[in-house]
Design a protein that fits this description.
It is a single chain. The protein has helices at about 15-25, 40-55, 70-80, 105-135, 155-175, 190-205, 210-220, 230-240; strands at about 5-10, 30-35, 60, 85-90, 135-140, 180-185, 250-255. By secondary structure, the chain is an alpha/beta fold. The chain has one domain (about 5-190, about 230-260): 3-Layer(aba) Sandwich (Rossmann fold), CATH 3.40.50. The structure holds nicotinamide-adenine-dinucleotide (NAD). The site of nicotinamide-adenine-dinucleotide has 28 residues, from helix 1, helix 4 and helix 6.
Length: about 260
């Protein structure tokens, strides 16, 4: 298997895209560290689900990634129990939809801390180990919103554009040490994050939820189809395979042609 003996840390992997990426790396034989915010008991259920299906060692941390100290705790756990992350997927993220004049300051702070700064902290703590081993793969789940904007998503678009800059910088710093850093830029993927956004966008735009799906969400994607979590996971695995060795600092668009317009 592609990743036997390697460890993948996937942040925000209790649902949606992150969970699919974690499953794809586990299916390639990697040890996987899961992370996310959970209700009591959900962590045991998730661990049992992964341990039943996959051969590698599976760990979990409920570190709240808006808190740099909690991130230090997570990275310490991965170093101690797994020998560090060979593959780091910075995926945890949230959204808030509102015109800028009403955008709650607390939501701005949350989204910048989680969607942008947490990737800085995990990366700064993981990259030395990768350089020492001479191999490491960092994948940032960015978004089409790392490349283009939409109204009412100021914090998300700012954070994702920031992730694009960080991806390119880290790619340059790791280039001669066997470390690669790339971003995946999906369009709309049907996950709990998008479900929540449909309601918020309907309110912000004064539209029905059906109109939001048809005229706002799928209107942006020329294929008129959602991206699937499995497609994003397949891209993540490809970026860590030998075929991806010279892909570095790239924004891998998976948006049915959205940003080509
Ligand atoms: P999701 O809501 O299904 O999953 C989000 C994950 O982040 C969950 O595991 C959750 O527990 C975790 N999380 C939330 N707050 C956290 C915190 N403070 N600390 C630690 N973990 C936390 O969302 P998703 O749609 O799978 O999104 C995953 C990533 O993909 C995000 O970065 C998002 O911006 C990006 N993305 C999503 C879409 C889409 O259409 N769904 C499109 C492009 C990019």
């Amino acid at each position: 298997m592609l990743h036997s003996g390697k460890t993948a840390l996937v942040t925000g992997s209790t649902s949606g895209i992150g969970k699919a990426i974690a499953e794809a790396f586990a299916a390639e034989g990697a040890n996987v560290v899961l992370n996310g915010l959970v209700k009591p008991g959900e962590d045991e259920a998730l661990l049992a689900e992964f341990r039943d299906k996959y051969e590698g060692k599976i760990g979990f941390s409920d570190a709240n990634l808006t808190d740099p100290e909690a991130i230090e705790g997570l990275m310490g756990y991965v170093a101690r129990d797994f020998g560090g992350a060979d593959i780091l997927v910075n995926n945890a993220g949230v959204q808030h939809v509102s015109p800028i004049e009403d955008f709650p300051v607390s939501k701005w702070d949350l989204i910048i801390a989680l969607n942008l700064s947490s990737a800085f902290h995990t990366t700064r703590m993981a990259i030395s180990g990768m350089k020492e081993k001479g191999w490491g793969r960092i994948i940032n789940t960015a978004s089409a919103h790392a490349l283009v904007a939409s109204p009412y998503k100021v914090a998300y678009v700012a954070a994702k554009h920031g992730i694009a800059g960080m991806t390119k910088t880290v790619a340059l710093e790791g280039a001669q040490h066997g470390v690669r850093c790339n971003a995946i830029c999906p369009g709309y993927v049907h996950t709990p994050l998008v479900d929540a956004q449909i309601g918020d966008t309907a309110k912000a735009r004064g539209m029905s939820e059906d109109e939001v799906v048809k005229d706002v969400i799928l209107a942006a994607q020329p294929t008129k189809e959602f991206v699937t979590v499995e497609q994003v996971a397949a891209m993540a695995v490809f970026l860590t395979s030998p075929g991806g060795d010279q892909i570095n600092g790239a924004m891998m668009q998976m948006d049915g042609g959205w940003v080509a317009q």
